[in-house]
């Protein structure tokens, strides 16, 4: 079965149909710039365009979004328009596309994909996924089970939110070398390890394309691996969530 997964990021919305048995993309990813401001109405417009881009794909839709989602409602809006707080994301997609939707946090979606069909496949114990983009997203799993809505990117390190020191956006903005940025990421990993003792960290986000430049600089008693699905993990995870609606 092929279902559409949509992943909302600070700079673009990306979508593709996914074979939800294998977790493999069934077509090329389409990408639309995130509207500014990224209000619910503006995003609904993009979701409609995404639907039109894949006329042959029917069924449930998965919609991953950078917000805490409880009871189907977005509760936070750290890097998106504040109008999202209180928005029913599944309903927004249903109204834009006329199809049932699963609405979930973007990092939870990415983690779900990596744990089911990517770098965390078959790993018992605790696995932590961290995504480095506009913010830092997180997802934690124990024996494959997700505890949703962790927000480790907002953990305080040296008096600042972790994502204000160590996101991929901050690396670019402050023109940090891989060495300096990796030291900041290592502080995040060290804190996470001290609190949760994971077996495995999976690191995701577009920055992972440069793994060769920074992967060898990362340190933790836990194993650290790049996301196997790269930047498409959120799309795949959204589609997997849609298949479980
Ligand atoms: C948000 C999270 C999101 C992460 C990655 C953070 O700022 O609070 O909900 O998962 O960014 O997009």
In short:
The chain is of the alpha/beta class and 245 residues long. The protein has helices at 40-53, 89-97, 106-117, 162-166, 168-173, 178-196, 211-214, 233-243; strands at residues 2-8, 12-19, 24-25, 30-33, 61-65, 69-70, 73-74, 101-105, 126-132, 136-142, 145-147, 156-157, 160-161, 200-204, 223-226.
Which key terms come to mind for this protein?
single chain, 245 residues, alpha/beta, Nucleotidyltransferase, domain 5, 6-stranded mixed β-sheet, 5-stranded mixed β-sheet, 15 strands, 27% strand, globular, binds beta-D-glucopyranose
Task: Annotate the secondary structure layout.
Layout: E1 2-8, E2 12-19, E3 24-25, E4 30-33, H1 40-53, E5 61-65, E6 69-70, E7 73-74, H2 89-97, E8 101-105, H3 106-117, E9 126-132, E10 136-142, E11 145-147, E12 156-157, E13 160-161, H4 162-166, H5 168-173, H6 178-196, E14 200-204, H7 211-214, E15 223-226, H8 233-243
Parallel strand pairs: 1-5, 5-8, 9-14, 14-15
Antiparallel strand pairs: 1-2, 2-3, 2-4, 6-7, 9-10, 10-11, 12-13
Helix pairs in contact: 1-2, 3-8
The structure holds beta-D-glucopyranose.
């Amino acid at each position: 079965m092929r279902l559409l997964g949509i992943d909302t990021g600070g700079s673009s919305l990306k979508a593709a149909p996914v074979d939800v048995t294998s977790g493999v993309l069934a077509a090329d990813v389409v990408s639309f710039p995130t509207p500014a401001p990224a209000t619910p109405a503006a995003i609904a417009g993009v979701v409609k365009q995404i639907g039109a881009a894949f006329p042959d794909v029917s069924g449930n839709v998965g919609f991953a979004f950078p917000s805490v989602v409880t009871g189907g409602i977005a509760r936070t809006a750290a890097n998106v328009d504040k109008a999202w707080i209180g928005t029913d994301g599944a309903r927004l997609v249903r109204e834009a596309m006329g199809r049932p939707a699963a609405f979930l946090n973007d990092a939870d979606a990415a983690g779900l994909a990596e744990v089911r069909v990517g770098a965390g496949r078959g790993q018992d114990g605790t696995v932590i996924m961290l995504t480095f983009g506009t913010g830092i997203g997180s997802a934690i799993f124990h024996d494959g089970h997700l505890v949703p809505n962790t927000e480790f990117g907002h953990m305080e390190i040296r008096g600042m939110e972790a994502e204000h020191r160590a996101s991929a956006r901050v690396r670019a903005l402050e023109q940090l070398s891989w060495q300096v940025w990796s030291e900041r990421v290592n502080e995040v990993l060290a804190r996470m390890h001290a609190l949760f003792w994971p077996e495995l960290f999976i690191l995701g986000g577009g920055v992972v394309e440069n793994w060769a430049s920074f992967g060898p600089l990362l340190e933790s008693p836990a194993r650290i691996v790049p996301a196997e699905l790269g930047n498409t993990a959120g799309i795949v995870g959204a589609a997997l969530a849609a298949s479980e609606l």
